[in-house]
Structures are given as C-alpha cells and as structure tokens.
Fold:
Amino acid sequence: MRPIVLILLAALSSGCGGVQSMLDPAGPVAEAIAGTWWAMFWGALLVLALVMALALWTLKQRPRSGPSGSGLIVGGGIVLPAVSLTALLIYGFQTELPQDDTNGLPPLTIEVIGHRWWWEVRYPGGAVTANEIHIPVGRTVRFTLHSADVIHSFWVPQLAGKLDMVPGHANSLELRAERAGAYRGQCAEFCGAQHAHMAFWVIAEPTPKFEAWLALQRQPASAPVGAAAQRGREHFLSVGCAECHTIRGTPAAGTDAPDLTHVGGRRTIAAGTLVNSEEALARWIAHNQRIKPGNLMEPFAHLDPVVLRELAAFLAGLE
Ligand code: CUA
Structure:
C-alpha cells in the first residue's frame, strides 16, 4: 500500500472522535485549538506529499555521472521545508484563543482542586462536589485551578486546552460550552499510580437546569428514607467514613476525601472509574484497593455484608 494511503488510514482509524476528542469542539476555545490542529495536519500532509513525489521522481531517474541536481537540493531540501515550516510556525503562533465574550454575564467562577486521584469542585455559595462539574451553556466559566498535593493537569478536550494544577499556585482557565452535553475530562499530567483513573465529567446544561442543580448542591444532605438507609447513616458516622468525608447536614466533616453530600446524584464514583449505583458504592467501599490500587482510601472488606448494604443504601439516597 502507498504510504499516503497508510497515513490516511491511520488518521481515520485512530479514534479521533467520541466524548473526549479535541476534534469535536463544543465551544469557542476548543474550536480555535481544533482549527490550529487541522492547519498543522494539512500542512504536514502537503509536505509529506511533496517529499514522496520527489522521492518517487528520483527513483525513476537514470543514474548520471557528474555533479548535478544541486538546484533541487537547495530548492527542495532547504528552501521548501524552511518556507513551509516557517509558515506553519507563524500560523501556530498567531492562533489567538478567542478573548472570551461573556454574553453580557460575568463569568461563573468555579474552583477545582486536584487531589491524588480525584477532583474537588467548589462553587460560589458553598456547594462542594467531586468529579462532576456542571456548567451553564452559553456562559463563560472561569476555573481557578490548584492542587492539594502533586502537579495535575485539568483537561476537557472538547472545551479547552489543558492547564496544569500546581501546588501553592492558582492557574486560571476560561471556557464556554456552546452546546449542551457531557464532556469527559482527564488528568493530563502523570501524578502517580492512579493517574489514568483521574477522570471527571463536565455536564453543560441549559441555565435553568444548571441553576436548579446548583441550588440542590448548596443544600445539606436530605434525611435518609427507610430503615436501611437510616441505619446506613449511623454506620457512616461510626465505622470511620466521617474521618475523611464530609456530608453537610451530618457530623461528618472530614476534608481528605470527596464531599459526599449529594453523591447519589453523580453519574460516576471514584473519579470516573465506576458508573454510580448502590451496588457500585458497596463494591467500592469494600474492594476499592482492587478497583483502584494505591488510592488513599482504606478498603472496608471486613464490614458485615448487611452493614455494607445499608451504608450503600444511605449513600445512594443522597441525591
Ligand atoms: Cu492527576 Cu494525573
């Protein structure tokens, strides 16, 4: 097969789509980045095509004696690559990220703190959540990014470029989602054993839906419904969970681990590792070191199965 065909096949089959693709931008910042990517891609393809054409042409020449072809070497080997690569370089430098127009609204500020290996998310007004960030469609969001331990990197390819989260220093990233959807984010800086399991979701939704979600997140946890969940709440406060986790509205006020006030309403748990369900919560509590080895939570495999079920029922009910 011809090299050009191979290259095209590779490009087409390399999974450049889906929920985490910067080639499927959902907002102006990501669109500018995707535009640069395509310019680089076509530029590189053009250079490759020229080089291949020259190589083929060369193979067809009969060997000749004596020096010749110096014009070709200077033109094709120095001038052409210098001009084309310089043009691409200048184009790359000139790609300005759009000065984000805020649509008349002040940007919504959301603080995100990287932890090994999860994301703490804090909204104005006291709402705290983890690993799932809701934003309103059409409004600029300013993320204030920092880290509680090592360097992480905040990256939602469909919305913006990546930006490091550095301990002791706040970085700021602005983006806007122009269409509703669920966009997967991923830590983009190697940060230890569970770097790959440090994912999150950005849910962009219409403003009224977002406001309703935020109002709920600001509320303390709802009271457990049913005897099993009520017992689960007691277990939560007695077996050790509260030392690390907060559930607003209960005495649990630990700060080392995700705030669980509304954990039942999240799509995933363990930073995008498991789809959230009562069964998954129980499995995580008992066997989290098998699911995400090295994570900083101790496994509670010793718990009585009934206690485990009641704990999971309580947590699943915290919507
Ligand atoms: Cu956090 Cu990689």
Notes: Helices lie at 3-13, 28-60, 70-94, 207-218, 227-238, 278-291, 305-316. Residues 114, 117, 152, 187, 189-191, 195, 198 surround dinuclear copper ion (CB under 6 Å).
